[in-house]
Amino acid sequence: MDLSWLDHAHPEARDVDGVVAVFEAARVVDMPHWLGTTLSSFRSQLRYGWDGDPADVAVVHDRTGRVTGVLEVDLPTWDNKHLGSVEVTVDPSQRRRGLGRQLFEAGMDRVRAQGRDLVLSGGFDGTAAEGFLEAMGLKRASQEAERRLDLLALDDERLDQELAAAESLSSGYEVVRMPGRVPEDQLDAVVAMTAAINDAPMDDLEVEDEVFSPERIRAFETAQLASGRRLYRLVARARDGGELVGHTMTAVERERPWWGWQYDTTVTPAHRGHRLGLLLKIEMLRWLAADEPQLRTIETWNAVSNHHMVAVNEVLGCQVVATATEWQMRL
């Protein structure tokens, strides 16, 4: 098997076309509810990743030059330098011929070559990914639920009541809007606040806390903006002293402006118990209704075991559309 690794900044156009075609063919079979990958979104992901730390991507071609399989190997550099993530996508017309196994083994070899001893991978429950990853020797480590919020079906009267109740418990805080990039004079405070996400349940995943820095926040912003997403960050600030104590983030797709992604929502430990998470999320919906009136759907993910945030999302009206499992194996 000959692998062709894509250049992060200047990939061959035919390979980019081939990757997106394979992703779309697999999406239709494995996860038809999922938002498809576009040429521009893949190019941005290849160059910038989620936060300036992109995965390496390789393709395999058949004898006609058509891409038939895609290998993604993510080797984190901000933190968790003991692990690598391996994802394999095979054209449905070429499955059950051993190509997926060859690609996955090549990915594990790349993880080992970097001196890492844990491999992660994931996939939707009820798809071919389950049997494949089990056959590769990985074990289930965490389950997540994918939920969607239909903004055209919001119960605004009930949400107004929930907001009023949350405000009665959070009078010591004010809500501050931060669209786009974080202001320079607030960057260090946002870094400290963002680290509170490390309290989120990770189940049996053998991962370390995420490490945040001003450089990482800026790299995240650059990656998201380059991917064609408009960023909305809403922050809770203590009236006494001005400390930033919690935030929620949403991104809206520029090319598909009906679609939004819910990113982190977290409150620092010392300021929990004031319903700030719910307050921030409802206030975010009000902000988006004014600034992004065309928005119809917001997608959010949570660990099934994250009972507190699941409860908040259910108050908003989020509905489960799928579950997925994160798998791991020691090398």
CATH topology of the largest domain: the name is Aminopeptidase
Straight-line distance between termini: 22 Å
Shape: globular
> What's the rounded overall pLDDT mean?
97
Percent of residues in helices: 25-40%
* Rg (C-alpha, Å): 21 Å
Tally of helical runs: 9
Q: Which class of secondary structure composition applies to the elements?
A: alpha+beta
The overall strand count is 12
CATH architecture identity of the largest domain: 3-Layer(aba) Sandwich
CATH homology group of the largest domain: Gcn5-related N-acetyltransferase (GNAT)
Kindly list the characteristics that best describe this protein.
331 residues; alpha+beta; Aminopeptidase; 2 domains; twelve-stranded mixed beta sheet
Write the layout of secondary structure elements.
Elements: E1 4-5, H1 13-30, H2 39-48, E2 56-61, E3 67-74, E4 83-90, H3 99-113, E5 118-124, H4 128-135, E6 139-150, H5 156-169, E7 173-179, H6 187-194, H7 214-226, E8 229-238, E9 244-253, E10 259-267, H8 276-291, E11 297-303, H9 307-316, E12 319-330
Parallel strand pairs: 4-5, 10-11
Antiparallel strand pairs: 1-2, 2-3, 3-4, 5-12, 6-11, 6-12, 7-8, 8-9, 9-10
What does this structure look like?
Helix 2 (39-48) packs antiparallel against helix 7, helix 5 (156-169) packs across helix 8 and helix 8 runs parallel beside helix 9. The protein folds into 2 domains: 4-137, Aminopeptidase, CATH 3.40.630.30; 146-322, Aminopeptidase. It has a 12-stranded mixed sheet with strand order 1-2-3-4-5-12-6-11-10-9-8-7, sandwiched between helices. The chain has 9 helices and 12 strands. By secondary structure, the protein is of the alpha+beta class. The model has no long low-confidence stretch (mean pLDDT 97). The relative contact order is 0.16.
